[in-house]
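Tutorial handout. Part one gives the primary structure; part two gives the three-dimensional structure as tokens.
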Amino acid sequence: MTDQSTMTDETTARAVPALPDAQTVTAVTHYTDRLFSFRVTRPASLRFRSGEFVMIGLMGDPHPETGKQKPLLRAYSIASPSWDEELEFYSIKVEDGPLTSRLQHIKVGDEIILKPKPVGTLVHDALLPGKRIYFFATGTGFAPFASLLREPETYEKFDEVIITHTCRDVAELTYGADLIAELKSDEMMVELLGEENLAKIRYYPTTTREQSPTMGRVTTLIENGRLFADLGVPPLDPAVDRAMVCGSLEFNKDIAALMEAAGLREGANSEPGEFVIEKAFVG
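Part two.
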């Protein structure tokens, strides 16, 4: 019986090719019918800067004629900080999306493909020194800021950390709101980052459909000055303010125009500036 069982296992292993660059799912949390997060094991050799992204995915369906499978890969910001032992991701669910229609059904113990080549512009190296940093996010664009909010360097570089998050409904704000609450209550995070640094965080959530304390697109609230009035800070000033932007294509363009109108220049890894945008991400 033992011999037969071993033979069957080996035959199956030969028939089903191993997933390339495989990492194992360790946790999955569903927030709404459109949003979920998950954690996977981290390759021992992977080094990244908080705020960067990697390509992740699953194998596609077999070709009807050849039977060959190709990986379905998309750029995902790493939501966990550079020091974390695992990797966290925050994703939207798209019913007819080639990848997310399948990715949303992953369970603990499943495997995903992860290409260990992190890149991105939402890193501290791409910004000039400043006093105040704004993280502007819509939807799952909160992910890179979930990484940076847990990165000690963020608080070493800035006196104020303002995170705005615009979603359609209140429930879609849950991931970010829970993360910030946990930062300020978790003993390990308080010890790592320091109470005085966590006090620098200013969280500014807004909704565009469901009623909430602050309604409207953050771009509108910047234009009419309400954002600054609510937070008790002066308007954008290129001498002291820095910004990182991650959201929909339209949102990114609108924020970039507002930053440039205020005198902030877009930066990059090769030439730091006053604001940066994650162009690889649209969500």
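Part three, for discussion. The longest helix spans residues 2-15. DSSP finds ten helices and eleven strands in the chain.
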